[in-house]
Design a protein that fits this description.
The complex is a heterodimer of chains A (about 110) and B (about 190).
Chain A: H1 7-10, H2 12-22, E1 30-31, H3 32-39, H4 43-55, E2 59-66, E3 69-76, H5 78-96, E4 105-106
Chain B: E1 2-3, H1 5-51, H2 54-83, H3 86-110, H4 115-136, H5 139-158, H6 163-185
Helix pairs in contact in B: 1-2, 1-6, 2-3, 3-4, 4-5, 5-6
The chains are: A alpha+beta (about 110), B mainly alpha (about 190).
Chain lengths: ~110, ~190
């Protein structure tokens, strides 16, 4: 890692998941199917990436039953929001050449 | 791990696109409730004028518009609490209030107007509000405002005795359908 660059977040699908969640108000949960539609992902693909983000402490997942149907809510954690902001800042820094090497960032 | 400037630019573009999509969905979520509420009020009031009497329609407008105003205010408070966008909600509320006051003052100067003229007048004023909302915040409202205005002008010019029916099904129906579409987009 370097200057807030986060390999967990940088994976393209996870980056989009984090961006979508970060656009919501802090602490506002979203339903799994809503997130799936927003990102045009399959259940399995989204579920796997969410698990990775959950292990990193970036999202929390809550399972409940509504009308006897399972419902999964996903929330961006404060740690996740901070990591996302740092990661985006590091990407911007790469573009503006704020990191030592203009074309590459190494860790 | 190394990343080139091109990859960084691509990642940032992807972030921008995903956040824009989520914010648009959020604004649709907020707007859908208001569009359904006011579309419903239009349909009930003009429907009463069409199916029962214009006197009843007048009474319903007098009763339902303040109720709609209160519900809109409560919805803005809820949006502020949930989304923390108090400034935007307050600005929209101020714009709506200014438009209503302008509408009342202008009506005071140009009256007396017939039932049909007053209906067309308030449609123009409220759709101007939608257009302004569309220019400032949610682009969809710009097209909705223009669409309902054009529809109303057509009904005003050509519907004759079917004015209330046209306003119920055409304008009220368009608002309800638009609200339903926004709701469906964010389901």
């Amino acid at each position: 890692m370097n200057n807030g660059f986060d390999e967990v977040i940088h994976q393209p699908v996870r980056l989009r998941i984090m961006a979508t969640l970060a656009a919501r108000p802090a602490g506002d949960p979203v339903d799994f199917p809503w997130l799936k539609r927003m990102l045009s992902l399959t259940d399995g693909n989204l579920g796997a990436h969410l698990l990775t983000l959950e292990k990193a402490g970036y999202v929390t997942m809550e399972k409940s039953f509504v009308d006897r149907r399972p419902k999964t809510s996903v929330t961006l954690s404060p740690t996740g929001r901070a990591a996302f902001i740092r990661h985006v800042a590091s990407l911007e820094a790469i573009l503006t050449g704020a990191v030592g090497d203009e074309s590459k960032i190494e860790d | 791990m190394s990343i080139s400037t091109e990859e960084a630019a691509q990642a940032l573009a992807s972030v921008k696109e995903a956040m824009g999509r989520a914010r648009l969905a959020q604004s649709y979520e907020v707007a859908s409730v208001m569009t359904l509420l006011w579309g419903g009020i239009w349909m009930v009031c003009y429907g009463a004028g069409w199916l029962v009497s214009r006197e009843l329609a007048g009474a319903l407008w007098t009763g339902l518009v303040p109720i709609g105003g209160v519900l809109t205010g409560l919805w803005c408070v809820r949006v502020k609490r949930r989304h923390g966008e108090g400034q935007t909600a307050a600005r929209i509320g101020e714009m709506a209030l200014a438009l209503w006051l302008f509408g009342f003052l202008l009506l005071h100067l140009v009256r007396p107007l017939s039932y049909v003229q007053i209906s067309a007048y308030w449609t123009l004023v409220s759709m101007l509000g939608y257009v302004l909302l569309g220019i400032a915040y949610v682009r969809f409202y710009l097209w909705l405002g223009i669409g309902v205005t054009l529809l109303m002008l057509a009904i005003y010019s050509w519907a004759g005795p079917w004015f209330d029916a046209g306003m119920t099904l055409g304008c009220g129906g368009t608002l309800v359908l638009a609200g339903g579409w926004l709701k469906w987009k964010t389901r």
